[in-house]
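Async update (no meeting this week)

Hi team, since we skipped the sync, here's where things stand on the single-chain job. The sequence we agreed to prioritize is pasted below, unchanged from the tracker. I ran it this morning and attached the output directly underneath so nobody has to dig for it. Comments welcome in thread, and please keep replies under the output.
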Amino acid sequence: SMVQKTEESFNYVWYVSKPRSFARRFVEYAFVLLVGPVLIFIALGMISALQSAAVVEYLLANDLVDQALVAAGELLPYVIVCGLFTFLYMFVPNTRVRVRSALVGGLAGGIMWATTSVLFATIVVDSANRNAIYASFAIPVSALIWVYLNWLILLIGSQLAFYVQNPAYLRIGRREPRLSNAMRERLALNIMFLVGREFRDPGGGMSLDKLSGSLKIPGLTLAPVVLALEEAGLLSVTEQEMLVPGRAMTRITLEDIVSVVRVAGDTGSYRAPNWSPEIDGIGAALDASVSAALADRTLASLFEEAD
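Output:
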């Protein structure tokens, strides 16, 4: 539950609209929670074995090597913390995070965490005289403050990693781009075209991230259109979270695709809109023009024309 809550928060930071599927969540979470501690235990055991080895004792007899090992031992906790933060920033978000971005966030988060740990420990030790006033109640209060600071540091590092990988978002923040009707229609058609082409000529699958890279459009903008196409049955998502056509491409008309973003929707009222007759006539003419332009063309025929 804790890892899932962390994933939801990281997905929010990374503008990811869909979490992992249950199957992926079960396998990957189990790997981290079960295999991770075992690997750490083995590493600690190997370190202990090396410390008792004759070669290490010989090296420790040398003052220069001894000082270097002492310095490395003091830096090792910080390296481990930074490495752990980097791993979390790469693994937890349900999107592809570059190593460089995760490393920058991991270094920042690890340094902040180590510094805050020293300051917090100093404050707790120096405030021992207040225990006479708060008694045992001071322990849970301090623990809650410490958990809050840890969570805040974790999110700051994740946000930094996101902005390193996506500097364009520094300008727009969390403001959703406003698409014109024409752009929404082209976007829906282009999404179906790319997904259908990848399905016809397999090349590793078409994910939302890959769509974003191909169209040079943020995933935040694509997600609502993709979701609408899914709800209309024109797209499906596999267990590997790849997008595929929802039915045979010979049965997906271009008018169906355009209608998802052009016609579908509601006004929020329980009654149908009361259009003026003049405006209703113009709307009918526009609909007829779109139908005539698409002329019963299907997604499959679009590929035939492209070939």
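Quick observations from my side:
The first strand starts at residue 235 and ends at 237.
The chain has 14 helices and two strands.
Reply here if anything looks off.
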